[in-house]
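Exam prep: given the inputs below (a chain plus fe (ii) ion), describe the expected output before reading on.
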Amino acid sequence: MRSLRLSKRGIGFIPKTLITWITFVLLIWMTQKASRNMNLSVIRGAVVHLTPPSLLMVVGRRLVVITDIDNELVLLGMKHILKKVLEDFPLDVHGVHGPKHWGRVCNYGMRIAEARGADKEVVKLFAFLHDSKRVNEHKDPNHGNRACQFAESLNGIYFDLTDYQMYQLRYAMAKHSGGLISSDPTIQTCWDADRLDLWRVYKEPNPLFLSKEASALIGYARRINLIDAH
Ligand SMILES: [Fe+2]
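Solution:
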């Protein structure tokens, strides 16, 4: 009886260990492959979280791989800017105002911009700059203005916005915490995208402050936050 019990435990134990190791090795290999493909190894620690839906996630015991080609392309265009922003970012990169939030804002912003004909370049830069100069995760009323100064210093070096695009970016960043609504599709798209990510702090986005195109994404943003939790 004793040897039979040992034998049964042995048979069950080996496949479980093998599955665990295979999953672990696959996880490492695919993370590195994803980083290489996106040419974002400079920020490898955050890369699996930057593109919602994430490139690679472990949900419960399952390994889930999801790719979003549009956002990969967007991120490739942002490589140098993102590296520059992260050089001086004072907060936790896994915090609620960090790169994972920027990635989701970019994702939502690109979808809304496509539907509304907003300026994707401005929306993309808003996503990655608007919270980049926060000094805390709570009350920091001047962080939008500091982001404007930062954007001014980058224009002409890291990107080339026209005067009007800079006006839109500055306005969107300076006022993004104010609960305003804009008739300018590009500025409103920036605010829409940021507000859709309120799910990350357990708040439901209010359609009264969103365009109808953004309101249609409230459920999508909720699902993204469930699988891409900060
Ligand atoms: Fe934000």
